[in-house]
Specification:
It contains 15 helices and 17 strands. It is α/β, with parallel strands linked by helices. The radius of gyration is 23 Å and the shape is globular. The structure holds acetamide (ACM) and zinc ion. Zinc ion (ZN) binds next to helix 8.
Length: 459
């Protein structure tokens, strides 16, 4: 009998005997009966000579039943089966960096389709950075008029190159386009979480409105990769007014429970020189610049909480003291996530050594397009253990997993798909099938998923 090749690997497949011609199955007009006996995202799908029947814990489960059916439709003849499934983790995501390189609304929709096919439920959208501001904010038009355009882009690797392409790179998403993407994703049970970076990775904003920085002048949307010492000035009240006004518009566009505030890679150099930042440290009784970063994040968290939202921050938000209600996204390995879970904070695991989809995926980088570095083949993604070293009690704080696609070195959509799609499936299987992973079997099943990707125009 033909074995079913489904990704993520279902919890239980019972072969009922006999088989069905899939051309006779109408997967479009499919509907599932809802039951409170299954979890919200869980489902039972039966494919027999009599047709398709499904029950689900909720609309999400019903949708996942339909995605499984979509994978089965790749078969001409399908054995009669009963499939029962539910995800291991409630948060299963991919992050798309559109600040370094923009991609079109149509392309983002294709990626959402691919994520839905492997039953992910979140897209983390990185929209602002040193090299470009990509979200229209009506109150601050300079953010997109000025901040969305860098004069040119580095050619080659930022560790070694000082050559530029002499071609401006710009663009942004209008609020109308953002609503369109959020709706498209929601129709596929994918929540879009926006990331607006603070207090670092802010040079595009500073170039648009120089009063946002400590020095107050001389900024330029960054043309090379790496980390800038120019960051938001938390010594000024006007900086917080700006951020709150920006978030007020962001909240109108994104209904997500979580808002990502960045928090990573914020050098403290400019704060050490800035009289206003030093005064803030004194008046707030802070110990040092790390506590000033923590003050900034906590103040924004308080404002967002008052507006009904929770924050996610990169693991640097642990430095200088993290708020107990912040969710920590562990990226510098798993250690930040482990520390956060032990302290009772919620955690999303995205450790670079398993989850950075901008890293090389083979041992022969010379045969791949240039990447930022690293080595994260599919097997390495698959080996991720989001519960790394945690006790059963601490495991409850791990919300889930995420693959990150940074786009410094990824300028075209074919390249983006090459980096994202194979490894996205491995992340999905960690998120859905934690307790039933088998890499050789997964590789075998990938051959079938490839056909689905092809059918969706995602070669
Ligand atoms: C990061 O990769 N800087 C979160
Ligand atoms: Zn300052």
């Amino acid at each position: 009998m033909k074995q079913l090749n489904i990704i993520p690997n279902p919890n239980k497949i019972d072969y009922l005997g006999g088989s069905v011609k899939m051309e006779n199955i109408d997967s479009e007009s499919f509907s599932a009966r809802l039951t409170d006996k299954l979890p919200e995202e869980g489902y039972v799908l039966e494919v027999t000579e009599n047709g398709v029947e499904a029950t689900a814990g909720g609309e999400r489960g019903a949708f996942y039943a339909s995605q499984t059916l979509k994978q089965l439709k790749q078969l001409d003849i399908c054995p009669c089966v009963r499939i029962e499934d539910a995800p291991a983790f409630e948060y299963r995501a991919f992050m798309l960096d559109c600040a370094r390189h923009m991609t079109t609304v149509e392309n983002i929709k294709k990626l959402i389709d691919a994520a839905a096919l492997v039953k992910m439920n979140t897209m983390h959208w990185h929209l602002t950075d040193d090299q470009g501001w990509r979200i229209e904010i009506k109150k601050y038009p300079e953010l997109t008029r000025v901040g969305s355009v860098r004069g040119e882009t580095l050619i080659g690797h930022h560790h070694t190159s000082s050559e530029y392409d002499k071609t401006p790179h710009g663009g942004y998403y209008t609020q109308k386009q953002i609503r369109e993407i959020v709706k498209y994703a929601a129709d596929r049970y994918i929540t879009v979480i926006p990331e607006i970076e603070l207090p670092g990775h802010a040079v595009a904003a500073l170039t648009s409105y120089p009063w946002l920085g400590c020095k107050g002048e001389g900024y330029e949307v960054r043309r090379r990769w790496g980390i800038s010492k120019e960051v938001f000035c938390p010594g000024k009240e006007t900086t917080f007014e700006f951020l709150q006004n920006v978030f007020a518009e962001v909240l109108e566009l994104f209904p997500s429970e979580f808002i990502h505030i960045g928090g990573d890679e914020c050098p403290k150099d400019s704060w050490k020189q800035c009289p206003l930042c030093q005064e803030r440290i004194r008046t707030e009784g802070l110990k040092d610049e790390f506590e000033l970063q923590s003050y900034t994040v906590r103040r924004m968290e308080k404002w967002l909480r008052e507006h009904g939202r929770k924050i996610i921050g990169w693991d640097e938000i642990l430095e200088g003291g993290v708020s107990p209600t912040a969710t920590v996204m562990s990226w510098r390995g798993s250690k930040g996530g482990i520390a956060a879970a032990k302290a009772g904070n919620h955690v999303i695991m995205a450790p670079n050594v398993h989850c950075y989809l901008d890293y090389y995926q083979t041992k022969t980088p010379t045969k791949e397009p240039m990447a930022i570095g690293g080595y994260v083949p599919m097997r390495k993604v698959y080996e991720l253990d989001p519960y790394d070293q945690l006790t059963p009690g601490e495991r409850a704080y791990i919300l889930g997993v995420q693959g990150n696609l940074w786009t410094e070195y990824i300028a075209t959509f074919p390249h983006l798909k090459h980096m994202l799609l194979p490894r996205l499936a491995a992340i999905a299987e960690v998120g859905w099938s934690y307790d039933r992973k088998d890499f050789d079997d997964f590789k075998h099943r990938m051959n079938s998923l490839r056909k689905c990707y092809d059918a969706a125009g995602l070669n």
